[in-house]
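Assess this one:
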Amino acid sequence: MKKFLSGGYMFLIFALLYAPIVVLIIFSFNDGGTLSEFTGFSFVWYEELFHDEEALTSLKNSLVLAVLSSLMATVIATFAALGLHHMKNKAVKGAVKSLTNIPMMNPDIVTGVSMMLLFVAVATIIKANNFMGFGTMLVAHTTFNLPYVLLSVMPRFNQLDKSLSEAAQDLGCTPTRAFFTVELPEIVPGIISGLMLGFTMSLDDFVISHFVSSPTFQTLPLYVYNQTVHNVKFSMYALCALIVAIILVILLIVNFTGSVNTMRSRKKQRRGVA
């Protein structure tokens, strides 16, 4: 009975999580362009997607913005984590860590409105027209990505052996060279995790982008939202299905690569023992 209830509970969770995605993928192939019934299998909406210049431009804008903002946030957060790691005053260090958590606890609408007011104030001071656009969105996305990347990098610094950096400096390395030679390779997994998290957060963001965007620069979430005034195009279902498929392929590749590396390391250990 216990196994039956646990199995049913897990099935319910997965059904709630993936049923909407499955429905979206199925109806992205619906020839009739309706959600009421499936009239026939067709790739017509995928063809329409690749002929929709506005949608492709919005997708390109989202990808460019996500890549640049996640890279900038990763570089800034890595050096911020380095500074926190070497900070000796525990009270100040704890206060700074607490402050970095505040943006993650704030609702997105608060961050979006505050960003908008900041940019409006700057535009008023420098007397600039049409100030909102790619630049403001890049600053906003980099800003809200910082705490998440920092949260991914900091644990790697905490796991570092301080004696490694000290030994490198005793052997003639400068502190900068010791960081890039000894410490940086050890924290690369945390940096990559933070980079991927920042990319995902930026690609997915709507609320903050809504407040700091302009009609001349539109991301994919904004483009989809603007369609809700009318009926959402079925080509958007096709685009979402493609995104899900790409993410699934990436996850399979990552998991397969990790499994292969694990098997190789185990074989090497067995050979070493033998």
About this structure: Residues 74 and 195 are 6 Å apart (CA to CA).
